[in-house]
Amino acid sequence: MKIQYTSTLIALLFVASVSAQKLSRTEKKIVSTIEKNNSEAIDFLEKVVNINSGTLNAEGVKKVGMVFKDAFDNIGFETKWIEMPAEMNRAGHLFAETTGTKGKKLLLIGHLDTVFEEDSPFQTFEMVNDSMAHAPGGNDMKGGDVIVLYALKALSENGLLENAQIVVAFTGDEESTGKPLSISRKDLIDAAKRSDIALGFETSTGFNYATVARRGASGWAVEVEGKRAHSSGVFSEGTGAGAIFEMSRILHQFYTDVKGEDLLTFNPGVLLGGTFVNFDELTSKGDAFGKTNVVAQKAVVKGGLRFISEEQKERAREKMREIVANNLPKTSASISFTDSYPAMQPTEGNLALLETLNEVSLDLKQGEVLAYDPGRRGAADVSFVAEYVDGLDGLGTMGNNAHTPQETVNLNTIEALTKRTAILIYRLINTK
């Protein structure tokens, strides 16, 4: 059963506090192991942060993947690197797995790539103070990957992974998903189909929140053609409005007529117009040539659309098509859409998982955990598997300014978040 609620209601949603049970003797051993390994975990994070793995740096993404592969091999996981076809210009994915029939079958999701490409000036891990470090991709999301690794390492060192099915999927192109999705997300979806629960380790929004719903993401592009002519004739019957005025009309009507539904947003990210326009899809860079005394004959815009359901996405697309079709004189326009991430809707199963996490957090004396507003989260790989399994996301590290040269990761929270993850996994793989 699907549960729908607005961003206002989600802010009011809470999981009832339950009387905290004491950690078991085994769980106390897990916690102790994580404390012992925490310094090593932070060193490991610094090591992988200092390897550039911008999405288009296929060699760097794979290099980071191999560091994690060795670490998972060392704790008894079967690992494999899944190459992507060369024409996709993506590195591939790391999968690590244990097999068994005990308890819930888990899929743990992370990603190896970052938004910082090889030409970025932001490349290295650097301490800001005794708790914070500037780290490109350290928060989004190599820190989350490290939490997964060191939670599982603690369970392995205590002999607690026997007969459990756990699949770790670290994708190499989350920040810019390879196309077609039928190839780039096939292995992730196949793993979900043989799992019961998916846990995503994207950036945490704090100890007191986890993600039960994420909006989907879709690309859109508008192309406009106008009549090239001397600017003295603009607005005349023979010349018309030109491409840039027509594009302005379209964008303004998107703003006034499509905007308004709760959790629906759309953003024009790049706009070019003039006499001649060139745009490179791969690099998302372009150029335009035009003169003030020439009516523009070409305009293009590329944008993104965020939505909480497929139905909401289709409603928005239909409105956008209607607006694009109603052209100013002597212009024509077309719109196209590209699917990227589906929505992760809030379900009863997701909320039940949140309650389990809440109990773990209370037992660790880390506080109550509530559902985070999906309107404040971007898309993520967990959305691809939401159709097949119950899931939670936002279980990774804490920090600030992700996707910017000021990105930080809070090192003082890694130990506590790793404890939470390890105890959650332990309880799930011991639950029928």
Automatic annotation (TrEMBL):
Pfam families for this protein: M20_dimer, Peptidase_M20
Keywords: Hydrolase, Metal-binding, Signal, Zinc
PROSITE patterns to which the protein is assigned, alphabetical: ARGE_DAPE_CPG2_1
Domain named Peptidase M20 dimerisation: residues: 212-331
Signal peptide: 1-20
Cofactor(s) annotated in UniProt: Zn(2+)
Superkingdom: Bacteria
Gene3D superfamilies: 3.30.70.360, Zn peptidases
Zinc keyword on record: yes
InterPro entries on file: ArgE/DapE_CS, Bact_exopeptidase_dim_dom, Peptidase_M20, Peptidase_M20_dimer, Peptidase_M20A
Tagged with keyword Cell membrane: no
Name the record gives this protein: M20/M25/M40 family metallo-hydrolase
Species this protein is from: Flagellimonas aurea
